[in-house]
Amino acid sequence: MKKNVKMAAGLLCAAAAAAVMSATAFADEETKTLRVAMECGYAPYNWTQADDSNGAVPIADSKEFAYGYDVMMAKHICEELGWDLEIVKLDWDSLVPAVQSGTVDCVIAGQSITSERLEMVDFTEPYYYASIITLTKADSDYADAEGVADLAGATATSQLNTVWYDVCLPQIPDANILPAQESAPAMLVALDADKCDIVVTDMPTGMAACVAYPDFKLLDFTGSDDDFEVSEEEINIGISLQKGNTELLDAINGVLADMTVEDYEEMMNEAISVQPLSDAEEETEE
After folding, report:
1. pLDDT tens digit string along 25-45?
2. 254: domain CATH number?
């Protein structure tokens, strides 16, 4: 009799433990959090703001909030997958190492899908396609440039470790290429302060810059015979993940597969329309 009681008690304990484990696993599944890293300083892709207006998301370990195209995309992905979202603010050069180490799940930060980066991380399908443009001042000697050759001799800079700096600037004949700027806002400040004649960047960044700096002029050589030569991979923007994380890669790609180029453009236009207009001016030049 005692033996049977002990067996019954043991079975009850085992069942209770299994129930707890099952409930814990269910809770973990229900509360899965996607940790997404970005600069939170690269409008219109991402920026920092003081409140949650327009749907901004709290930045981890901060009293500030992040918003922009990348945040909108991260929110959409998490909503479709039923996950929570956490935004992690990191500087540009820390993004890839954070993915490699597993500190964050992915980076959504306007990263081009380059061969060099693909050696270190995996990428989703593109979540934006960004053409290359040039910014100058409306009264500069280069304001009427119609192609790369017309930028000859310009003093130029762009953001560190980008296609703009590494691939595009060297294509300008006799360019005086200054050291790269640590961030996109710092790059724009350099142009505004007349430290350079031009900067090269992508279309969304250029469009947003012209809102923040009304005296900037955007030069788009797309479709001309004298445009910057870049490959498809260099203008396609993707979400980077730790190599081999096929489960997350497939999940995010599943969401992106249901979106169109028009969806991306609509989301980007909304981000540009609500971006802070003065953030770039608060940055100091490197």
Report:
1. 333 455 699 999 999 998 999
2. 3.40.190.10
